[in-house]
Write a structure and sequence with these properties.
Elements: H1 8-19, H2 23-36, E1 41-47, E2 53-58, H3 68-71, H4 98-104, E3 107-113, E4 120-126, E5 129-130, E6 134-136, E7 141-147, H5 154-158, H6 163-180, E8 185-190, E9 193-197, H7 204-212, H8 214-219, E10 221-227, E11 230-236, E12 249-253, E13 256-258, H9 261-269, E14 283-288, E15 294-295, E16 306-307, H10 310-328, H11 351-366, E17 390-395, E18 399-404, E19 407-412, H12 413-430, E20 436-446, H13 449-457, H14 459-464, E21 468-473, E22 476-483, H15 491-499, H16 513-525, H17 535-546, E23 561-565, H18 566-572
Helix pairs in contact: 1-4, 2-6, 6-7, 6-13, 9-10, 12-16, 12-17, 13-15, 15-16
Length: 579
């Protein structure tokens, strides 16, 4: 085919595809422009997840009426004048492409007024075609209204996600910018519902509560560090608060939200040896560095940056986060006097082992054969079942030790209880007889905006499982009843379990939404590692596990037990084979 010069209309739509990928891209560009204009109040309104309407209003410096037509032209900006300025960028926007890109794929109206002007100005753009600038009464600041996004690019419209996903992206974006600019008042309205509103009083902890929930915000640790011209501040999670992925690690560099893999890796490395494999920390970190030390012009959406000295930044982030963690939870020191010694009392048999010995003796003396002692020729049945187990005790308030007919069993009490609850709940669900217990005082649970939307979609499923939950407004829910299985547990934990991620691979349950939700709730309600159980509770857990259909794994596939056979123990002690 012969080479042809593209028309300006086609070229503008191609360029718009690099900057405007989805409704959240529009919100990002307009919010960044408002912040660059010095706005102290930013209001975002959307309809139909941004497909129908996105409106961003601010009280910033505004655009002069004689510059409004130029402002919507491609590559028109007040933030750069020469190429060298690209290496000293201190603003969020600088390319002058945002308004032009939006106008080429939507019906856009821009209204603006500067403080010293008596009247404002308005201009309409539809599919890249500009109208005339009109004088209009307006308050100081700028209002950009984007309607029918991608109406003239139907192929791009088809690639948008569901309304829930698109709204969640906007929620996440705006809440993070509210976190980075706590002195600015942000308000987000979605189809007449206000889902986010900040006071602009500079309290980042309150915004963290809106992003992650009150309970999580209370646990986050504040960190601050300064090293050779680089400043770092923010909030990080303690080692007890983790997620199954990296999505809750947020970085801002000079006020710009960036998605930088090396920075995220440095953050995770700070938790090295402190977290379980497959678990990731949470954090909101703000880095301030000289503009000439960072290149922000490396990604069409300005979502990535490149540092002049990457290793220096990597090391600084890792050290700063690690120092902050150890300051709140120092590693305990062991007195040298205890090395290589043993307290006299420790030579005695531990209480759990004493109980196991007494039970064995009693079993022989009374002739109780309900829990038979192992014989040398016992063999484990070839099935998923476990044999009858005799409790020995608990180790580390996390694992149960039991004896079976062919060796020793170490049982993870949390995974085992998770399996027990899951099978009981699903059995009741299959019989459509899940007994509920009404709460004496209904519990009110507040969730972040994105989580509240997810939970609203699953209320019908929760009802099938014996929960009585109703929307209480403002991202809150009221719990009136819970299944009898979870009586006495924290009802808010069950609701949070529905919308939070876990470390286990949920692929086996991916296409079974009810089982997936049941597994999540049971995980949260199961006894935890580090929780001391009474002997009767330990025995009851073993008995229930023996009766499970799939006792060897939890619903997510993690093993509930480790088996040490008699044969293996004899080899380890040199009783078999070469010595």
């Amino acid at each position: 085919m012969p080479i042809r010069l593209l028309s300006s209309e086609v070229a503008s739509q191609i360029a718009a595809g690099e900057v405007i990928e989805r409704p959240a891209s529009v919100v990002k560009e307009l919010v960044e422009n408002a912040l660059d204009a010095g706005a102290k109040s930013i209001t975002v309104s959307i309809a139909e997840a941004g497909r129908k309407l996105i409106e961003v209003a601010d009280d910033g410096s505004g655009i002069a009426s004689d510059e409004l037509a130029l402002a919507i032209s491609r590559h028109a900006t007040s933030k750069l004048s020469k190429a060298d300025d690209l290496f000293h960028i201190s603003t969020l926007g600088f390319r002058g492409e945002a308004l032009a890109s939006m106008g080429s794929v939507s019906r856009m109206v821009v209204t603006s007024k500067i403080a010293k002007s008596k009247a404002g100005a308005r201009i309409k753009v539809e599919g890249g075609r500009e109208g005339k600038v009109e004088a209009i009464g307006a308050p100081a600041g700028t209002v950009v209204r984007v309607e029918d996004l991608f109406y003239n690019v139907p192929a791009r419209l088809k690639f948008l996600k569901t309304d829930v996903t698109e709204r969640r992206a906007i929620d996440s974006l705006l809440t993070r910018y509210a976190l980075a600019y706590p002195d600015v008042r942000f308000k987000l309205s979605e189809d007449t519902n206000v889902t986010l509103q900040t006071s602009g009083d500079g309290d980042r902890r309150a915004i963290l509560a809106a992003l992650y929930g009150v309970e999580v915000a209370k646990q986050l640790l504040e960190i601050n560090s300064d090293e050779e011209g680089i400043k770092l501040s923010g909030y990080v999670s303690p080692t007890a608060l983790t997620r199954s992925n990296r999505k809750d690690i947020t970085f801002f560099v000079n006020g710009r939200w960036v998605q930088d893999t090396p920075l995220t890796t440095a953050f995770i490395q700070a938790y090295h040896t402190l977290l379980m494999v497959g678990r990731y920390p949470m954090g909101a970190v703000f880095i301030e560095i000289a503009p000439e030390e960072v290149d922000v012009n490396v990604h069409p959406a300005k979502a990535e940056v490149r540092f002049r000295n990457q290793d220096r930044i990597f090391g600084f982030v890792q050290r700063a986060v690690r120092r902050g963690l150890l300051a709140y939870a120092p590693v305990p020191a062991v007195a040298p006097s205890l090395w290589g010694t043993r307290a006299e009392s420790s030579q005695q048999v531990g209480i759990d082992w004493t109980i196991a010995h007494d039970e064995a003796v009693e079993s022989r003396e009374t002739g109780d054969e309900s829990q038979p002692l192992p014989t040398s020729d016992s063999r484990l049945p070839i099935s998923n079942r476990v044999p009858l187990l005799r409790l020995i005790g608990q180790i580390g308030a996390t694992y149960l030790v039991a004896e079976g007919p062919d060796g020793l069993y170490l049982i993870d009490q949390h995974a085992a209880h998770e399996r027990i609850l899951f099978e009981k709940l699903m059995a009741q669900h299959d019989m459509r007889k899940i007994p509920s217990q009404s709460l004496l005082t209904p519990a009110v649970v507040q969730l972040p905006p994105a989580s509240a939307k997810l939970l609203n979609e699953q209320l019908a499923v929760l009802t099938h499982f014996g929960f009585d939950v109703e929307d209480f407004g403002s991202n809150s829910f009221r719990v009136r009843a819970v299944p009898n299985l979870f009586a006495g547990s924290d009802p808010s934990a069950a609701l949070r379990a529905i919308v939070e991620d876990f470390e286990e691979d949920e692929a086996p349950l991916q296409n079974e939404i009810e089982k997936k939700l049941a597994a999540r709730v049971c995980k949260r309600m199961a006894v935890k590692g580090g929780q001391t159980l009474l002997p009767d509770e330990q025995r009851a857990l073993l008995t229930d596990l023996e009766n499970c259909d799939s006792p060897r794994t939890c619903p997510h596939g993690r093993p509930t037990m480790i088996h040490l056979s008699v044969d293996m123990l004899e080899r380890q002690f040199g009783r078999r084979g070469a010595r």
